[in-house]
């Protein structure tokens, strides 16, 4: 089975063509007061106007506080201080610094060159499927590019603060693909990730390149790819066909025995089975 050289090609192609309060209720009650136990009513004493400190007294007071070693400088409340420091997240700062290291300053995102540099720093080849797995974990949307939100939020969600963390977690991420549910999610993500974002379907050449990488050692992949490449009328693979082939490849014997043409399979798979049974494979 060919090495994943198509991966870096896909990332490069995209740079040149594909664009990618609830409040408690306070109850107030009227209280009946017995007049016999009420205290005598006192006359109100007029309030004195607050004295306004003269500049001289203020200056004296300032000197006095200085002599006593008292800092008269107004201070922020503890609440305000906490609010100021709460906005700084060391982890986020580290990820922002990491992102800026690879960002294309002319494009405000990480492009193909930045991705290659990041791959070198985490010890993976851009030609390997490790790059696709990384993009999956970042939930990247466009081939060849990582947005600032995808890179920083994606790595933070995975518990990574730097390149060394990514390198350490890659084996775990790859092992997740041994779990059927994760593998199926990865397969679906690949459809969205590798197609032209302006199109609803995946171009046939791209589908033919991706399938051998995501369904390795499956007996149907190689003949199905040849079938796609020999059918002049097949130019794209839509989402239903893509996901149906996933189920078909896992449930149908290599010789297509037991395949039910009356089942709810796409016509593309009916034609593939007929092609196989006709001795074309």
Automatic annotation (TrEMBL):
InterPro entries xrefs:
DCN-prot, DCN1-like_PONY, PONY_dom
Q: Name one GO cellular component term.
A: ubiquitin ligase complex
GO terms for biological process? protein neddylation
Q: Name one GO molecular function term.
A: ubiquitin-like protein binding
Looking up Pfam families in the UniProt record yields:
Cullin_binding
Give the residue ranges for region: Disordered: 46-90
Domain DCUN1 per the UniProt entry, residue ranges = 90-277
Q: Which residues form a coiled coil?
A: none
- The superkingdom listed in its UniProt entry is Eukaryota
* Membrane-crossing residue ranges in chain numbering: none
Role this protein plays: Neddylation of cullins play an essential role in the regulation of SCF-type complexes activity.
Recorded protein name is Defective in cullin neddylation protein
- What species is given as this protein's source? Tieghemiomyces parasiticus
